[in-house]
C-alpha cells in the first residue's frame, strides 16, 4: 500500500513537471530512463506525455516489453535499448537523439534500487550494483542531457530523479 502511494506521488510530480514544462517552453522532448522495476509507472507516465503531443525518448536495458505495450495502444515512442550506467552506450544514444534535431527539456530518471531494508544486508556486490545503477547512471544521463543545453547557452533543464522504494 505504501509503495503504491509513493509511486502515485512520484507519477503526479512527474505529470506536474510535464505540465510546467509545456507552459514554460512549449512542446519539447521528454526523456524517460526506465528499468524493469519502474515499467508500470513509466507506462502511465508515457501515456500522459503522449496526450501532450511531446516527443518521447525511452532509454533503458529492459524496455522492449514496455515499448511493445505502448505500441499496442498506438503510442509512439523513440526507444533506445541501452545500459544507462555505460557512458559509451549512453553517448551514442544521445547522439542519435541529437541527430533527430531534438533534445530533452525534461528528464525523468527512475531508479529502483532504494530499499528500506537495504542497509541491513550490505555486501560489496549489492553496494556496487546499487551505486552503478542509481548514482553513476543518473550522473551519465544528466551529463549527456545537459550537453546541448550548454552548447546553446541555455541554463536550465528539469531533471527528476525518482526513487522507487521496492519492498522485500
Polypeptide structure, described:
The chain is α/β, with parallel strands linked by helices and 168 residues long. It has a single domain (2-163), classed as Rossmann fold. Helices cover 51% and strands 17% of the residues. It has helices spanning 2-25, 39-50, 64-72, 87-99, 124-151; strands at residues 29-33, 56-60, 78-81, 104-111, 158-163. It has a 5-stranded parallel beta sheet, with helices on both faces. Strand 4, helix 5 (124-151) and strand 5 (158-163) form a beta-alpha-beta unit. Helix 1 packs parallel to helix 2 (39-50) and helix 4 packs parallel to helix 5. The chain is globular. The two termini are 14 Å apart.
Total count of helical runs of at least 4 residues: 5
Overall number of strands: 5
Radius of gyration: 16 Å
Shape, per Cα inertia axes: globular
Write the CATH fold name. Rossmann fold
Describe the main β-sheet briefly: 5 strands, parallel
